[in-house]
Amino acid sequence: MAIRKPTITDVARTAGVSKGLVSFALNDKPGVSPETRKRILEVAGDLGWRPSLSARSLSTRTSFALGLVIRRKAEVISADPFFPAFIAGVESALTEEGRALVLSVVPDAEAELRTYRTLAGDNRVDGVFLTDLRENDERFAVLADLGLPAVALGHPTGRDDMPFVQVDDTHGIASAVEHLVSLGHSRIAHVAGDPMMMHGGRRRSSFDEAMREAGLDPSLVIDTDFSASNGADATKRLLDNSHPPTAIVYANDPMAIAGLGVAQQRGLRVPADLSITGFDGTDISGYVFPALTTITSDPVEWGMVAARTLLELIGSGSAESVELPPASLLIRASTGPAPSDSGHHAAHR
Amino acid sequence: MAIRKPTITDVARTAGVSKGLVSFALNDKPGVSPETRKRILEVAGDLGWRPSLSARSLSTRTSFALGLVIRRKAEVISADPFFPAFIAGVESALTEEGRALVLSVVPDAEAELRTYRTLAGDNRVDGVFLTDLRENDERFAVLADLGLPAVALGHPTGRDDMPFVQVDDTHGIASAVEHLVSLGHSRIAHVAGDPMMMHGGRRRSSFDEAMREAGLDPSLVIDTDFSASNGADATKRLLDNSHPPTAIVYANDPMAIAGLGVAQQRGLRVPADLSITGFDGTDISGYVFPALTTITSDPVEWGMVAARTLLELIGSGSAESVELPPASLLIRASTGPAPSDSGHHAAHR
DNA sequence: GGTTCAAGCTATACCGGTTTAGGTGTTGGG
DNA sequence: CCCAACACCTAAACCGGTATAGCTTGAACC
Predict the structure, then answer these.
(1) Protein-to-nucleotide distance from the CA of B124 to the C1' of D21, whole angstroms
(2) Same domain as A110, residue A204
(3) What is the mean pLDDT for each group of 10 consecutive residues in chain B (349 residues)?
(4) Residues in contact with strand C, defined as Cβ under 7 Å from any of its atoms
(5) CATH at residue B305
(6) Taking CB atoms and an 8 Å limit, are B55 and A58 in contact across chains?
(7) Inter-chain contact B57–A61, Cβ cutoff 8 Å?
(8) Residue A180: partners with Cβ closer than 8 Å, 6 or more residues away
(9) Residue B45 CA to C25 C1' — how many Å?
């Protein structure tokens, strides 16, 4: 029953030409007369021929796949709503191209580098996305060494040899701070992300800048690993402060939700006693109570554009970096006027 | 600078043997004397030779990759905490094997089937995971037709030709119901998942069964698509009821969190007025207020075992199905004694 | 009318492995 | 002493494409 998949030789024989010519016709190369090309493509269609991926890979040294290496501990991976959406965006750009996405989830830096080496050495992918950029990121050197095309997610500071696709998140943080300031808050804290990750660091420094611009003290900052657990701990520490903040800007939604939980557990009313902002605009953030004021970007779009950029880079050897629309503040119910008494929560205005 | 990667021919020449013999030595085939085998492997090591994946793929028709096709609309994908964790588990079993994971996210059924066909036709993967089993699932026929080995996640009812890896979640739902009953609840509702998905349907029918066993009315069920938005809507409908439930069992955590938000927005106290249980034991569920009583499984373990089973199936042509430890109830703060008045929270009987 | 040239096409090497048929050399049995 | 059997190894075909060198053919040109 299992009839063999037709090969290029079958097509060539049926069309009465050499297999080289079939290859030319398939790849739109010159040297084939229009009629012959048409006939070959017809025959190919009739036979249901699809060129073998392995054979093409072997002779062209191309895998027709892109790689995404995510470095997250298994316990934490689910907390990050970014990747599934990003991947969905990547896919939407890939399927039309007949390319596939090879995904790796690795626990630590060593495995991460080894994975890039294996992907490149096995010629498993034609290019990779570089996520979670870090300061002094070793991966730039390794990728350059491997000659593996890559597109960075976010702007790799101090490098202009790699195209990137960036969402300006500084603007979002700044507008959150401005929003809170306009509501009368002056003690505003920031539960930051991992300072070793560029986007964590960038959000932090834009918080810093926005606070200074408003003439406020930007020193109430706690670093985290972006996990809900860290977000809860940071919130406790901030609220234990003798002079606690009236507003907290979180570097992502899960931490903000965890912070909200901590505040509520302590009997604080949000936003009457404490205002809270998240980051990412995850689905769930609109359904907690009170609905989270958050900073939304569009990770699906991000993935789509990043994929297109990477394909462009692989195809033509270079690609323009892209700056996506900045993350914008989505004001919902978790932010409100600062308590008139900027001190503890029992007060009224 | 870019020195060519050594090929099997280089190894053969350096070791002074034919390349066929190198292949034998590499693959532990008989017909190579122990000393020669040792020498060949030494030379291979010295040269840093790694057999070309494309070449092997071409001659063995093996891709050394597994496929995972996820059918989710882009808007919803982030809401599901299952996949990232599952994938992390799969990866942990794959890396040791030098295999890769090819991931596809597709929006609808048509694209889903097309993707399986492409993966098989391109010989892109050696086998696939079958997730989100549905009633009358067309994929079984397609996969059989394609001859693509597959492992099902969850027990495909009425099929014994495909190995599966299952977590008994009926037990979890049942214990949630029992827990609520023991707290004195009698009007218990279920915000179910997609009834077309087997795990949605199964959770629903085990809810049904557990309720009947307790002598309670199991008719308070609302179907959803597992999204937070659906969870919120379902909760509103349930609470708008003239005789609303005192406890709601949700089919996943995001919906439970959304339901919690709705309840709080209406001024209901959880768990004093309304008890809530989730499903999945996501990270964030422990940090909302009140912390969610939920049913935990171990998706990372699930992924690991599923990957091993699929590898076994591909390698030996058959594999034993695996039953993982049942999902278990994690009692936290969102469940409590039923209000003495079983009617509306302001009312008296 | 012969040469030049380009278009269109074929033949074949090649990518880097696996696999099969066959060839050697040594040993052991009759 | 001859042949069979076996262990070890080589040569070459093969997987299914791509790429290159070279062959035909006909038209253009002088």
Answers:
(1) 34
(2) no
(3) 82 94 93 93 95 96 96 81 92 91 94 96 96 91 95 88 91 95 97 86 90 96 93 97 96 95 96 96 93 94 96 94 94 95 43
(4) A 16-21, 24, 30-37, 55, 58-59; B 4-5, 7-9, 19-20, 22-24, 26-27, 29, 49-52, 54-56, 58-60
(5) 3.40.50.2300
(6) yes
(7) no
(8) A188, A247, A249, A275, A277, A335, A338
(9) 30
